[in-house]
Amino acid sequence: MITTVTLNAAIDKTYWLDNLTVGTANRVKKAATEAGGKGVNVAKVLSTLGNDVTVTGLIGGSDGRLIIERLKEFPVNQQWSEISQNSRTCLNIIDESGKVETEILENGPAVSEKEWKRFISHLKEIANESSLVLFSGSLPSGLPADSYKTLVEELQAKGIFCGVDTSGEPLKKCLEIEPEIIKPNKKELEDFCGRKLDNLEDVIAEAKLIHQKGVKYVFVTLGKEGAIAVGDTGIYQAIIPEIKSVNSVGSGDATFAGIGGVLQDSDDIELALLNGMAAGIANALQTKAGRVNRQDYLDLQQKISVKKIG
């Protein structure tokens, strides 16, 4: 079983407009509401692809209850830890004329020290049944930057395999203890290393450094340029087909799900890269975030090329 952790769960709302104009009233053409937060999206995709999944994290208030209700559509085991403040809402506005997406993201609720300690104990208990624990997303207000580091350390001490998909200072702190899997995008990797990565060689060089310091699997997504993966068996590149994206929100989470679905019981980094890309692209073809059509996923596996480049 895989456990996904979402410390900053959300209600994801998507609005489609013919044309977004700042400073005036805008009419919504179409709207969608979905249980969200990066780890929630990972869990939805994993369950769709046939994996046993438990989803946990911090959740509260009326929006927290709505997240629980919306997530009942998926065959996931919900094991949330409740907090007093309301979970957040995130908005994605899709301007169809300009083909531009604009995200507006709330910071999330404040978490008390008591609530945090309770969650640590809760996670340690449910993670005992997991072959892999995947941590995804931002931190809510009040939690220190080393919160993921704290959680991963607790689980690594129990011999549990961990993957992390976050950014900024939380990623830097977490890399001090070398989680087994990370999946930054190019911008997140640039922020981590503190320099512009102008070409594929630069990206590979930074990913190799992280791997050499102890992270077993390093995946870096590159948007339309596909992705690369670095592990003990070498360096791999995924070349992806062109698609007409419907909604790209959640595609990185779907990629993480595809990767985790393989690495929970295999060392096949090449297959993990292939399946991750197939899931990520399949998500972009859907209206709602964190969703894949299984047939799209299978078809895309045949259209993606993965080659060893080092």
In terms of per-residue confidence, which ranges show pLDDT below 50 for 5 or more consecutive residues?
none
Give the overall pLDDT as a whole number: 94
Helix content: 25-40%
What is the 3D shape? globular
List the helices and strands and how they pair.
Elements: E1 2-6, E2 10-17, E3 30-36, H1 38-48, E4 53-59, H2 61-71, E5 77-78, E6 81-82, E7 88-95, E8 100-105, H3 113-126, E9 132-136, H4 147-156, E10 162-165, H5 168-175, E11 181-182, H6 186-193, H7 200-212, E12 217-221, E13 227-231, E14 234-239, H8 251-263, H9 269-284, H10 294-301, E15 305-308
Parallel strand pairs: 1-4, 1-9, 2-7, 4-5, 4-6, 9-10, 10-11, 11-12
Antiparallel strand pairs: 2-3, 7-8, 12-13, 13-14, 14-15
Helix pairs in contact: 1-8, 4-5, 8-9, 9-10
